[in-house]
């Protein structure tokens, strides 16, 4: 779980057998990019007050090697993020 004083990752071991690996695809660079993006997202959500206890971010690589960030939210945190997105959309004039 993401929270103050940690790097935002749950420490699960990498399962190298979880997917098909293609020779020549740079999965590690994608994962590093995703890790940085997940840290940025976690920091931003914390800054706006989203409860880090209800937040889980995981870095991964897609089948093509591109970075992927997986976001898991508690119901309460999802409502907080939805409210923040609506407020931001209204400020930017994108509310419908």
Output the structural class.
Answer: alpha+beta
The string of secondary-structure elements, in order, is HEEH
In round numbers, the mean pLDDT is 83
The total of beta strands comes to 2
Roughly what fraction of the amino acids lie in strands?
5-15%
Summarize the structure.
The chain is built from 2 helices and 2 strands; from the N terminus they run αββα.
Would you give an account of this structure?
- With 96 residues, the chain is α+β, with helices and mostly antiparallel strands.
- It has one domain.
- It is built from two helices and two strands, in the order αββα.
- The chain has a two-stranded antiparallel ribbon with strand order 1-2.
- A hairpin with a 5-residue loop joins strand 1 (55-61) and strand 2.
- The longest helix is centred in the middle third of the chain and has 21 residues, at 27-47.
- The radius of gyration is 16 Å and the shape is elongated.
- The chain starts with 26 loop residues before the first helix and ends in a 5-residue tail after the last helix.
- Residues 1-5 have low confidence and may be disordered.
What labels describe this entry?
alpha+beta, 96 residues, single chain
Topology:
Elements: H1 27-47, E1 55-61, E2 67-73, H2 75-91
Antiparallel strand pairs: 1-2
